[in-house]
Design goal:
CATH superfamily: 2,3-Dihydroxybiphenyl 1,2-Dioxygenase, domain 1
CATH architecture: Roll
Strand order of the largest sheet: 2-3-4-1-5-8-7-6
Radius of gyration: 16 Å
Structural class: alpha+beta
Shape: globular
Order of helices and strands: HEHEEEEHEEE
CATH topology: 2,3-Dihydroxybiphenyl 1,2-Dioxygenase, domain 1
Distance between the termini: 25 Å
Number of domains: 1
């Protein structure tokens, strides 16, 4: 790798978005609103519900739906994969990981995501605008 690429990566914000899995959406929304004295924006995407915390940079949300199980698995951290996550997703298995949810659109406003297991078995996510 050349110095220019390394310099650009050193300036990149690696944390892009993270989610906290919940079973009872309304209870969790109330808990976090009370805990942080904030209003969480609730959005129903049909197959899952998301409660977006107010933010200016790194985003956070509570999420209920299939595949979002609270517990020892912990939060899902979304890593900024640049303009199109498919480029990075195509490298996951070659690097020793496994794609567990292919690239899919979250919404026109929120872009795209994919889930993968890293080489250690950590559940992670990629995010991009297209």
């Amino acid at each position: 790798m050349g110095n220019q690429s390394e310099t650009q990566d050193n300036k990149r914000s690696w944390t892009h978005w993270f989610e906290i899995p919940v079973s009872d959406f309304d209870r969790a929304k109330s808990f976090y609103e009370t805990l942080f004295e904030i209003e969480i924006q609730a959005i129903n995407f049909g197959s899952f519900k998301m409660g977006i915390f107010p933010h200016s940079d790194v985003g956070c949300a509570i999420v209920s739906g299939e595949g979002y199980t609270p517990g020892a698995q912990g939060a899902i951290v979304y890593l900024n994969a640049g303009p199109d996550l498919q480029v990075v997703a195509d490298r996951v298995e070659k690097a020793g990981g496994k794609i567990i949810q292919d690239k899919k659109q979250i919404s026109e406003e929120y872009g795209y995501m994919a889930l993968f297991l890293d080489c250690e078995g950590n559940k992670m996510a990629l995010h991009s605008v297209k």
